[in-house]
Amino acid sequence: MIRTLIVDDDFMVAKVHAGFVAALDGFEVVGTASTGADALAAVQRLRPDLVLLDVYLPDMTGLEVLRRLRADGAPVDVVVISAARDVESIRSALHGGVLHYLVKPFDRRTFESRLREYAAVRAELAALDQARQADVDRVFAGARGGGRPVPATPKGIAPETLELVREVLGAAGADGLSATECSERTGLARVSARRYLEQLVAQEEADVRQRYGTAGRPERRFTLRSPQRPR
Question: The whole model's pTM is what?
Fold first, then answer.
């Protein structure tokens, strides 16, 4: 199993990424950290194989965390996951030896693809004794990844949050959720929860219906479509 530490100061994003990792064969989440200091302590304590590292942290940047890990000789691989798009951050990450740099927002397929590429590189190295040039070329090509384009999402819709709403909606079952219930279960504002629910409807991943009570306006309830359900 590839032991993975998730470092992100947004608890909701960390939760979504933990769900992504846990769903992948061969990976397990051993912990999360919301600050740079927590991340450094967690690496020493938990000895993860892989750190998923955000750049924007409250006490120090993720790049400073990376620098300290390398200075300490920590034998851990790092994938940066951040909204930081400036060239200097990317250059610093490369100098620090990161395997990938994922720019937020991204979709789940891209995330899983990068982690599978990383797992394949680890397996390739584990199987080698003495490497030929062809082996080296193959390993470095795998570490760089395929660079698939990231599908665009509508303005104001974050893929990580959309995945969280999708998971909460799926867990609600056939009765579904109202926007208020979704808000309570995700921590989103009610208006934001409704916008994400409506986005799932627009993507034909969810249905919405009116449920009439004894008095007052009807309640709109959203249910997640199953893969087999006809559209």
Answer: 0.61
